[in-house]
Amino acid sequence: MWLGVAQCTAHFPAELFEGVMMNLILHAELTVGLVLRTEVVPLDSSTSTSDTKNIDKSVLYEVPGYTLNQVLRRRLLPKVPERDASLEQDCILYRDDSPDPDVTLVTLFPLLQPGQKMPHYHPDVDALAFRYLPSKHDAAPPLVRVDVVPRNSASRDEGSRLYKTCVTLLEIIDKHGWGLLTGYSKRMIHDTVVPRNTYQDFYHVMKKKYQHLKEEWVESTDAVKNVFEDIGIATFLMLLWRDTYPPVIENNQEKWGRPPGGFVDAGCGAGLLVHILLSEGYQGIGLDIRARKSWDTYPTSTRSRLHVCALDPLSPGFPPKNYFPPGIFLIGNHADELTPWLPVTAALVPSASYISIPCCPWSFDKGFHRASSIFPSFIEQEDKTLKKRLGNTSSSTYGAYLCWLSALTKECGFQGEYEALRIPSTRNWCIIGRYKLPGHDGTARASQLLAEVVNRGLFKTRKNVAAGH
């Protein structure tokens, strides 16, 4: 039996209801924080068998006053599969039988396997129905209403979990409807370099493998943030390298592609990213101006690859070949003063590439300032696509710095790629230089930029310091 739970005023017209509900059906993570994503399942290949007891399946599609419009089956994938199982749902959309019909009814039926308990992220109901109820007269606003078929006499009181869940769902529907009406566009666009599903699936594997490191963190900074941030960056880099370089054969086994010259993490800090990548079989080193407490906690195989070194762009023979061989991949995660030197260094090393995740804004020999840090040719090179993706952020100092770095990337001969990484940091944008711009001598331009810095005489190399200073 269907029972009403809650309703709210709809601040959008009926013709937008279908678009709102389809978006939420295809992106369940927008409604439930414990859901990772949604996958559409062909109706003839489902692995689930309905275990709902209160629904007569023979009349599922027959609703008085409505006409069946579409049937879609989705699979909800949980963020924590060790705790919750995935769940399939039949999502059924109906048009009302009005002279100008719109989709105004959507029903959701969970399809439990025999003996399966309802996952925690799903209300304890056999079915949900969302209805758009147009206003009957000018004084009454349109409504969105949610009805359910409860399981096990679930409470619908205002303090109950079911009631709170339904109210939250109604608020989300109304928010998305209002956004669609007013022309809202998503501010942050992810997954333009590495596909979302590929990243999420592999991140889960990496997280399960390395999350124990948060218990071993000895630095004074936030263990959870730093560990999961570096796990996320390592996941992204491994997938990026897989798609960039050809596979390699090791011990008669094919391995993912990797930089032929290895990697160098410039300004590696605690060295955790280096440790994870080395543990996954990649070759590389980490450089920093001082050793950290964490370095002593790693195995010898990692400690031997972490070096105290202050990079000096003004020194003869920069960049040093012992740290930057041909084919090296440079990593700069919140590298501060080294950030603008990443594309310059990559341009000076044959077949090198780089990724930069900027934080504190620095130009070559002083702090970044919008007015004084713009080279004339940089203005023409500024990436309009990045500026559009940044939206309002482009007007901030951080956004202006990203645009400046994107121009520098092109000055150094690289096709800039940009991604908002899925990591726990507000400074999560990265700039990637892995492909060269045709017909552009980035090496010559990088050498020119280096000479200009030398001539100004303002650059001060930071000195190696003892641990703890």
TrEMBL record:
Domain of life the protein comes from: Eukaryota
Entry keywords, A to Z: Cytoplasm, Methyltransferase, S-adenosyl-L-methionine, Transferase, tRNA processing
Catalytic activity: uridine(44) in tRNA(Ser) + S-adenosyl-L-methionine = 2'-O-methyluridine(44) in tRNA(Ser) + S-adenosyl-L-homocysteine + H(+)
Record flagged with keyword tRNA processing: yes
Keyword Ion transport recorded: no
Entry coiled-coil feature ranges: none
E.C. number(s) listed in UniProt: 2.1.1.211
Cellular component GO terms held in the UniProt record: cytoplasm
InterPro entries, A to Z: SAM-dependent_MTases_sf, tRNA_uracil_MeTrfase
Pfam families documented for this protein: AdoMet_MTase
SUPFAM superfamilies attached to this UniProt entry: S-adenosyl-L-methionine-dependent methyltransferases
Top EC group: transferase
Localization per Swiss-Prot or TrEMBL: Cytoplasm
GO molecular function: tRNA(Ser) (uridine(44)-2'-O-)-methyltransferase activity
UniProt GO BP: tRNA methylation
Family to which this protein belongs: Belongs to the TRM44 family.
Functional description taken from the UniProt entry: Adenosyl-L-methionine (AdoMet)-dependent tRNA (uracil-O(2)-)-methyltransferase.
Identification of the protein by name: tRNA (uracil-O(2)-)-methyltransferase
Organism: Serendipita vermifera MAFF 305830
Higher taxonomy: Eukaryota, Fungi, Dikarya, Basidiomycota, Agaricomycotina
